From TrEMBL, chain A:
Organism: Huiozyma naganishii (strain ATCC MYA-139 / BCRC 22969 / CBS 8797 / KCTC 17520 / NBRC 10181 / NCYC 3082 / Yp74L-3) (Yeast)
Keyword RNA-binding recorded: yes
Family membership: Belongs to the RNase PH family.
CDD domains: RNase_PH_RRP45 (cd11368)
GO molecular-function term, one example from the UniProt record: mRNA 3'-UTR AU-rich region binding
Locations listed in the record: Cytoplasm; Nucleus, Nucleolus
Name this polypeptide is given: Exosome complex component RRP45
From TrEMBL, chain B:
CDD domains given in the database record: KH-I_Rrp40, S1_Rrp40
Localisation per UniProt entry: Cytoplasm; Nucleus, Nucleolus
Chief subcellular location: cytoplasm
Domain S1 motif: 63-131
Matches recorded under SMART domains: S1
UniProt name for this protein: Ribosomal RNA-processing protein 40
From TrEMBL, chain C:
Taxonomic classification: Eukaryota, Fungi, Dikarya, Ascomycota, Saccharomycotina
Every Exoribonuclease phosphorolytic domain range: 2-123, 141-199
Organism: Huiozyma naganishii (strain ATCC MYA-139 / BCRC 22969 / CBS 8797 / KCTC 17520 / NBRC 10181 / NCYC 3082 / Yp74L-3) (Yeast)
UniProt xrefs under CDD domains: RNase_PH_RRP46
Pfam (any one): RNase_PH_C
InterPro entries membership: ExoRNase_PH_dom1, ExoRNase_PH_dom2, ExoRNase_PH_dom2_sf, PNPase/RNase_PH_dom_sf, Ribosomal_Su5_D2-typ_SF, RNase_PH
Assigned keywords, A-Z: Exosome, Nucleus, rRNA processing
UniProt-listed Gene3D superfamilies: GHMP Kinase, N-terminal domain
Principal location: nucleus
Protein name, UniProt field: Uncharacterized protein
Residues in coiled coil: none
One of the GO BP terms on file: rRNA catabolic process
Amino acid sequence: MAKDIVISNSEREFILESLRAKQRLDGRNFDEFRDVSIVFGNEYGDVLVSLGGTKVHCRISCEVTLPYEDRPFEGLFLISTEFTPMAGGQFENGNSTGEDEVLIARIIEKAVRRSGALDVEGLCIVAGSKCWAIRADVHFLDCDGGFIDASCIAVMAALMHFKKPDITVQGHSVVVHPVEEREPVPLGILHVPICVTFSFFNPQDSETNFKGQDNLEIVVTDATLKEELLREGVLTVTLNKNREVVQVSKAGGLPMDALTLMDCCHKAYEITDKVTSQIIAAIKQDYAQRDRYAAVLSSENARDATA
Amino acid sequence: MSELVLPGDSLGIHDGVPVILGPGVSCDPMTQEVIPVNAGVRHYIEKKNTVYVDYNAKRYIPAVGDLVIGTIVSTFADSYKVSLSDFSASVSLSYMSFPNATKKNRPTLQVGDLVYARVLTAEKELEAEIECMDSVTGVHAGFGLLENGMVISVPLSFARTLLFNDTFPLLSTLAQSCQFEIAIGINGRIWVSTDKIENTLACYRSLNLCAKTNDSSKFKQIIKEQFKLAANVIEE
Amino acid sequence: MGIQTGYLDQVDGSAHYKTDTTALLCSVTGPIEPKPRQELPTRMALEVIVRPALGVPLTREVEIQDKLNSILGSIIVVHRYPRQLCQITFQILESGEDPHLFDSKELVACVNAATLALIDAGIAMNSLAIGCVIAVLPESDGKHIIDPTDEQLRNAISVHSLVLQLVDGSKVVNNVLLLDSYGDFTEKILFEVLELGEKYILNKAQDFRKLIQERIEASILK
């Protein structure tokens, strides 16, 4: 990413020097994740996530379509990630072929879609002929590092917030009830994967083989844009609340040992736990605001359907 | 005499009297009408018969005589290419624009080095040129390589105030906390260097925060806190 | 109506524009170095990008881009920046209309957001461009609807998008930058629409001025 941003030698040296003195420019600790804010729009499945200065918007939409021939019992799920110069001049419009752009898209795809976070079988309407196609459009608005982490939170929050119209199946005909007519239904979410990205810096000069006796590489959680530009290695761990490792991605860069990896996973778990709770709390609060009269109008009995 | 103007407003200058147009004011080539083209505070200096609009922006456009901080992005046979802001067209810095430069005695700057320089020519159709000496006298004049230290990006109006307004209290307040070297570029870049890393860090964070608040009465508090914070952490 | 300028950090200027039904973000970066194929010898090249809230950009977005390009090209003082580029990106967050049928509300919201974002970025402009959508409903008898809802758009006999170029304290209309009309209407209705639109836009311009003024006053160092 960020091919054209010029970073001077002075800045490079100073940032590394600070890291050696256990300091980050923004005053965070090495293992501190930036503050996450989750704001929902008017529609279901419309969310704006900010992670420090990074902003990502995600919209979910759905339509009834034909399932794939080889998977008649499953619905379709697509995540679309496209970059525009809005996020920063380093991004080109519609050009998603850059190394970093591809990496971001693939990691989100892997973390959310291929990990089975969305219950695609639940999207089946009539086997082999009709199913729901769910589409997540990720819009990158402002880039201060951590696009992977922020967009993963955005996609998951939007999926959990989204509700699709209710349907009735009569033989081979399907009736889609408009939202005004029948309460829409939420999607089936099987687990909530959260990505946490760690960046590695080599405190010695690049000649030193630091993997010998001393294990001194600096590990920094949730790097900002400047840190991302200078880092020498990157690791993205995706976990869920059940302590399951969904994916580990480390594409080149500094070598690392198993203990560091374990340590990163532990740190990531704490962040995952916190962020997951925050997403759930934000959705709960938004739903409560939406139907302020639900409690009065509800005919539901004590057996809570959402429990 | 100052008031707020927006693009397309009337400037309220009398017709027929020639005026000098400063930043933010343009003469329409078709109608020969003088209008403000930016949103900001209109200033009219009667003595010099000059009108300009003081407006804030993030991106720098070179103007002759401006003091700027640039990063060397590439070297050529007889000049450097220098970036004054990200993604903007680069400017050129000739090898002969250094003090005591001859064909044999070339400057030894590397790609990525920071230079403090002055804009020599700026024509909108051409690549701008900068120089690292006073070309009138040929002396050093304090320009050249900026070693170590750290760079802070700030809005252009903040950089201008810091450089031109001698009563602006930021630098004097900062000086009470530590000794520092500073170079202010009109292109929205400020370079600071101190002898200790925690002091540079505190300067960096203080300047960043001060550039965000516009209330100079808060500067003292911000700087005090940042120096305390940086000193504490390093001690631990 | 909620408007916030300087919403994004990485770009030179931005505006978050929100009406009751439509929400979008506009970012401006420029003047920057263009790619060789974009460069124009005598003026600034504009790269206008419109991204829909849902799905990929289609011909509809390209049409909006084209209209925006000519509107913004006439309010920016393009000859001040020869061989330079200005990237103007729009991200629709909420459309507020059926994207398969209409584009008026998005287009007008884009124009208004761009005016504010360009001012925020400090790009030289010769005037302000402000617009509105007016729908003529069957039962309206002379009372047309400004900034209609999606339902009103569907029921309308004709829909008009109007963008005016304002100068001189934003009190004088210099030119009509856009008048896009769909449906059946008579000359009389069109003039009614223009008159109504002018009044409304001149009012709106004063709101915009206030907003910009507050922003400038807040940015002056004390």
